[in-house]
Structure formats: structure tokens, C-alpha cells
Write a structure and sequence with these properties.
The chain is an alpha+beta fold. Helices cover 34% and strands 29% of the residues. The chain has three helices and eight strands. Helix 1 crosses helix 3 and helix 2 (63-74) crosses helix 3 (83-106).
């Protein structure tokens, strides 16, 4: 069962990231629950979460949005999706997920995060076995759209060592 206290930190982290790092306000769409077994968009940043909350977070976007976000982060046009764009998007995932992990710890869920994994292509098989995913769609205005897929569950005995 998905708990709002496990999901909200990711929305809060995204709001802070896009406002402070890029200088834009985002518009949140209606969250929905999905059984996501494949990558939904062309560019995907996956971060694993272990500890007292466990699962994964996936930031999914089309290539245009990926290049726009990366360009805004490095403050220079990125016309091609390349290693610089990948690095910027991995950092975006780290920052948002790191902020969420800090918020989770404040409410009693100590977690560790994996390094970001970038997956290119729609339809690559992924699975959060037995964990529903909540999707938080975000409209970034001229930068495009990004969906945050959060699949977390409580793991009371999972304090990371």
C-alpha cells in the first residue's frame, strides 16, 4: 500500500529543485497509480532506495524535455542528447532524490540511495515487484514535461549498514 508520507517528499524535492536550480515554477498534474513494467518515455533516470523505505524512483521524460532540462541546468544549449546531458539529468535525479531522502529521514525512514542509472528508450523492462507505482506528472512550462514514478514501501527492519 502506498503511503503519502513516502511519496510527498519526492514532489517537494522536485518543486525545490526546479525553483532553486532552474528558476521555474512547476505545475503538478493529478497523481495516478500504475503498474509500470517498462520504461514509459525515451529518457529515464532510475534510482534505487534501500533501508527503512525500499523500492525505486524513476524520472521519465521525452528527449526534447531531457535536452531542455539539461540545457537549463548547465546554462548552455545542448542540441544533442549526449554525455553532458546524461550527466546533468543524473545530477537532477540525485538532487531531487537526495532531498526526498532527507525528508524521509526527518519522519523516521532512514534510506540509502543507489547512483543514478540512465536508461534510453521506451519499453525497456523494469519492475518494482509487488510495489505499486504512483506517478506524479509535472509540467515544466517551456522545458516540457517529466513524470516521477515512485515505488516505495516500508521496510521496518531495513536500516542500512
Amino acid at each position: 500500500m502506498l503511503k503519502a508520507e513516502l511519496i510527498n517528499p519526492f514532489l517537494e524535492g522536485a518543486i525545490v529543485f526546479f525553483k532553486h536550480e532552474i528558476g521555474i515554477e512547476i505545475v503538478r498534474g493529478d497523481p495516478r497509480i500504475e503498474l509500470c513494467h517498462t520504461t514509459p518515455e525515451e529518457i529515464n533516470v532510475l534510482i534505487g532506495v534501500t533501508g527503512e523505505a525500499e523500492g525505486m524512483v524513476l524520472y521519465s521524460m521525452n528527449q526534447r524535455s531531457a535536452k531542455s532540462i539539461a540545457s537549463a541546468m548547465v546554462k548552455s544549449p545542448i542540441p544533442l542528447y549526449d554525455q553532458l546531458a546524461e550527466s546533468a539529468l543524473g545530477e537532477m535525479g540525485n538532487i531531487i532524490t537526495g532531498q526526498a531522502a532527507s525528508r524521509l529521514e526527518e519522519i523516521g525512514y532512514v534510506c540509502k540511495l543507489s547512483p543514478p542509472i540512465l536508461i534510453s528508450g521506451v519499453g525497456t523492462i523494469i519492475s518494482a515487484i509487488d510495489i505499486d507505482m504512483i506517478v506524479i506528472p509535472l509540467d515544466l512550462g517551456t522545458l516540457g514535461k517529466i513524470d516521477i514514478y515512485v515505488a516505495l514501501r516500508e521496510n521496518p527492519g531495513g536500516i542500512p549498514s
